Amino acid sequence: MKMILVRRFRVLILVVFLLACALHIAVDLLPKLDRRAARSSGEPGCSCAQPAAEAAGPGWAQARSRPGESAGGDAGWPNKHTLRILQDFSSDPASNLTSHSLEKLPPAAEPVDHAPPGQEPGSPPPRDPAHRPLLRDPGPRPRVPPPGTSGDGSLLAKLFEHPLYQGAVPPLTEDDVLFNVNSDIRFNPKAAAENPDWPHEGAEGAEFLPTGEAAMDLYPNWLKFHIGINRYELYSRHNPAIDALLQDLGSQKITSVAMKSGGTQLKLIMTFQNYGQALFKPMKQTREQETPPDFFYFSDYERHNAEIAAFHLDRILDFRRVPPVAGRMINMTKEIRDVTRDKKLWRTFFVSPANNICFYGECSYYCSTEHALCGRPDQIEGSLAAFLPDLSLAKRKTWRNPWRRSYHKRKKAEWEVDPDYCEEVKQTPPYDSGHRILDIMDMTVFDFLMGNMDRHHYETFEKFGNETFIIHLDNGRGFGKYSHDELSILAPLHQCCRIRRSTYLRLQLLAKEEYKLSLLMAESLQHDKVAPVLYQLHLEALDRRLRIVLQAVRDCVEKDGLSSVVEDDLATEHRASTER
Question: How far is it, in rounded angstroms, from Cα 63 to Cα 339?
Answer without folding.
Answer: 8
